[in-house]
């Protein structure tokens, strides 16, 4: 590739030396690669990022196939080696190799020589997770544990803003969902899974429940129907297992291995890569949960955790104002809790400006300019960088795989000079580990027994069902007493002239008129009503 100097700049040695000096840090730092300048790679000019600056957040961007995943792997390895836990999402299923030593080869040795790297094959301590039941939809006892330790959230803790994003509700529907959550919280109705939420929504639009919400705005039947249909569609996609108990404790991400290295938590997502809104919003829940639990620590010598948010554009597509405000606030404030967040996407314009402004570290892989929209995105990306000695439009379209334009925050918190960089090779396996090895790692984890089996305890669904059954029983008892009193009154009434003799009822009439038959009929009617309701909303019968 060709990296050229802008016209009018000083000799190549001048800018090159200035850029190299900008990355000569005194404290601990991650080694990213070697400087590219004037068409050559300079292994004596190492491009680095100070370890304390990793909690100032960052952006890894670039077109598909330019090496973003390998960059994540490279940074994650070095963070682990420095004792910093890492969380990253494995959307394509090729990041699990970070747990195994890399494979030596001619290309690896060539890259290591070019950038001045002492390459040693090394695996890093990992935990593998999956959203919901680890065997996927319909997972059996034989397949569970093959993907990852289940990560579940309760509906209550997920909250109405994030859930509205997943269910693709509009602003009005999101506000109504917030009202439902508020009611459930105030009445002590725990929303553990989706059937709990569905039960509360159905109750609030029933004749019995309508009065409950009148004082605070009410809930229209139409909006409730939309929410119920969205929940049903969500469940039909196999997403129901992502909500439930035991709820995952995000503090598990903060652990280190016995040898002091940070544990790399890999969320395996190939099984849900066709549900981008689901997994991107779930990643945001994990981050928000960390924010809620961690104490304020200020600036540390090294982060407590670095969180890589892959496919970040999926998080922001179609997001409501409330959702974007929540994301922005979380990213802005979580730094003081020792957590660094790196968004990974194709172009900086995928990230809202308020969020982008908080990202102090940038690794920009190659961009393509095949269309007018591409050219516009390229110009916008160039404008987000500090002034540079490079012609960045030319450089960004000429970068090869495993090369990037980098600027980070120095130890003093100031932006470093823009540096075109040939990146180092990861020391771990650049590809997935064999499926049996992954399954063995999952089953061998100390966390597997804690989270593998789902628990279905009493929550809103059971409470509302019990109340409904009690109300039906009370209504039936009152009806029977009224009928008995009427019969007694009839028996004690003196016969009057003209009264016809009372005919003895037939056997069939006796059966039909009995209290037992009445009870049975009401029970069947109630069950039939439930079956119709379930059919309308597309829900399945609850397993006993």
Describe the protein in words.
This protein has 544 residues and is an alpha/beta fold. The protein is 43% helix and 13% strand. The chain is built from 19 helices and twelve strands. Strand 1 and strand 2 (40-50) form a beta hairpin. The longest helix has 33 residues, at 460-492. The protein is elongated and about 125 Å long. The termini are far apart. The model is unreliable at 1-12, 134-146, 507-512 and 514-544 (pLDDT under 50).
Main sheet properties? 12 strands, mixed
Query: In terms of structural class, how would the helical and strand content be classed?
Result: alpha/beta
**What is the assembly state of the chains in this entry?**
single chain
Mean pLDDT across every amino acid position? 83
- Shape type: elongated
| Residue windows where pLDDT falls under 50 for at least 5 positions | 1-12, 134-146, 507-512, 514-544
Total beta strands: 12
Helix fraction by DSSP (H/I, runs of at least 4) = 40-55%
Strand order of the largest sheet: 2-1-12-11-10-3-9-8-4-7-5-6
The Rg value, from CA coordinates, equals 31 Å
Strand content: 5-15%
Compute the separation of the termini in Å. 65 Å
Number of helices: 19
Give a short overview.
With 544 residues, the protein is α/β, with parallel strands linked by helices. The protein has helices spanning 13-21, 68-81, 106-115, 155-167, 171-186, 194-204, 210-214, 221-239, 276-293, 313-316, 321-334, 353-356, 372-383, 392-398, 435-443, 448-451, 460-492, 507-513, 515-537; strands spanning 29-37, 40-50, 58-61, 86-90, 126-131, 149-151, 264-268, 305-309, 339-345, 361-364, 403-407, 419-423.
